Amino acid sequence: MHFNIFTLFPEMFGCYFGVSILERVQAMGLVELVVHDIRDFAHDRHRVTDEPPYGGGGGMVLKPEPIFRAVEAVTGADPARRGPVILLTPQGRQFTQSVAQELAGYEQLNLIAGRYEGVDERVRAHLVTDELSIGDYVLTGGELAAMVVIDAIVRLLPGALGAEGAAESDSYATGLLEGPHYTRPAIYRGWQVPAVLRSGHAANIARWRREQALRRTWNRRPELLLTAPLDEEDRFFLGRLAEEIGGAGADSS
Ligand code: ADE
């Protein structure tokens, strides 16, 4: 999968792209991450990329020419052959796990990191095909948001994570939050790892994990239970949980 990232601050990406899974998927040839400096496409003498807004008001607005030029020079002039052009902006549609899954199906994605007060509206209207927000807060620019989006997509690609299928049990992939994890030692400061996890009984472990995921989702993000795929056994467990909580109050796990 090929990513083009258009930014005024290419140096922000080097560290994140150079370690851990993002470094590995590039070394494996699974992913190409190419960062383009929008300033390189500003052809005036001072390489100006932003100007004050027409009509007055504070802040600066990113000019259309360098952004159009950058995207067209890198991806070609034909919009049909370049994959989605995504602007990172707090006004975009909410980025979620299901949007990550949707975008993981493309061969090429082009991400534009906005800055300052925003980008000239003609970029949105005539170049951009999608707009994403990573949450209801305002960052100083879209670079962090672009890294978040890329990270969430890349780890979904087959072969990206060490153990094949590891992304499938992630929180949100199942529609539920994941339950607790434990590793050695079996007893730490007197706190024990639940016996079922050490029992070696695969079916009991799977059931316990499922119930822990249901419990945690109930406690922290109950609205997810409205849309998560649940079977008979899950519903029965949730019924018991409701009784337990009605009686004794929720434990906060
Ligand atoms: N740029 C600034 N804030 C942002 C956000 N919340 N999501 C995406 N891009 C942004």
Briefly characterize the structure:
The protein has 253 residues and is of the alpha/beta class. It has eight helices and ten strands.
Describe the fold and architecture.
- The protein is an alpha/beta fold and 253 residues long.
- Helices cover 35% and strands 17% of the residues.
- The protein has 8 helices and 10 strands.
- It has helices at residues 11-17, 20-27, 64-75, 97-103, 121-126, 143-154, 202-220, 232-248, and strands at 2-7, 32-37, 50-51, 61-62, 85-94, 108-113, 118-119, 130-133, 187-188, 191-192.
- It has a 5-stranded parallel sheet with strand order 2-1-6-5-8.
- Strand 9 (187-188) and strand 10 (191-192) form a beta hairpin.
- The two termini are 38 Å apart.
- The mean pLDDT is 94.
- Bound molecules: adenine.
Features:
253 residues, alpha/beta, Alpha/beta knot, Trp Operon Repressor, Chain A, 2 domains, five-stranded parallel sheet, binds adenine
- Which second-level CATH architecture of the largest domain applies? 3-Layer(aba) Sandwich
Number of strands: 10
What would you report as the Rg, rounded to the nearest angstrom? 23 Å
The count of helical stretches stands at 8
CATH superfamily of the largest domain: SPOUT methyltransferase, trefoil knot domain
Shape: elongated
CATH class of the largest domain: Alpha Beta
Give the SSE map.
Blueprint: E1 2-7, H1 11-17, H2 20-27, E2 32-37, E3 50-51, E4 61-62, H3 64-75, E5 85-94, H4 97-103, E6 108-113, E7 118-119, H5 121-126, E8 130-133, H6 143-154, E9 187-188, E10 191-192, H7 202-220, H8 232-248
Parallel strand pairs: 1-2, 1-6, 4-7, 5-6, 5-8
Antiparallel strand pairs: 3-4, 9-10
Helix pairs in contact: 7-8
This protein binds adenine.
